[in-house]
Amino acid sequence: MPTTDTADWSRAEPGSVLATADDYGELVAALRKRKAALSLSGAEIEQRTGLAAGYVAKLLGPSRVKVAGPLSLGLMLQTLGLRLAVIAAETPRPGLPKRNQQEAA
Fold first, then answer.
1. For residues 60 and 28, is the Cβ–Cβ distance under 8 A?
2. Calpha distance 21→98 (Å, rounded)
3. What are phi and psi of 68, to 5 degrees?
4. Coil, strand or helix: which one is 91?
5. Domain limits of the chain?
6. Domain 1-84 falls under CATH 1.10.260
7. 37 and 10 Cβ atoms separated by less than 8 Å
8. What is the pTM of this model?
9. How far apart, in whole angstroms, are the C-alpha atoms of residue 51 and residue 76?
10. Which residue intervals of the chain are DSSP H helices?
11. What is the DSSP secondary structure assignment for residue 3, as one 8-state letter?
């Protein structure tokens, strides 16, 4: 995962870049790292956000049973003191073939 490993994830200044993520797995890894840096348990996050018991483990656990939706992602970001930014990549990748074109091949 591309990260700024020299950053202190527990005492980062507002606006500092802690990590970049090119896919959902890397985003989850960054959320896990921030959670650990703040010494927050899943239960503490659930209590602060109002998410159901065990939900954080389903979002951030190794098997990732759940995928963060608009509500849970927003609550997690707020609780972990994070914001998302959209950053232009060096070169846009060409689009993927449409699903029905992949199945026909």
1. yes
2. 24
3. -65, 130
4. coil
5. 1-84
6. yes
7. yes
8. 0.80
9. 9
10. 24-37, 42-49, 55-60, 70-79, 99-104
11. B
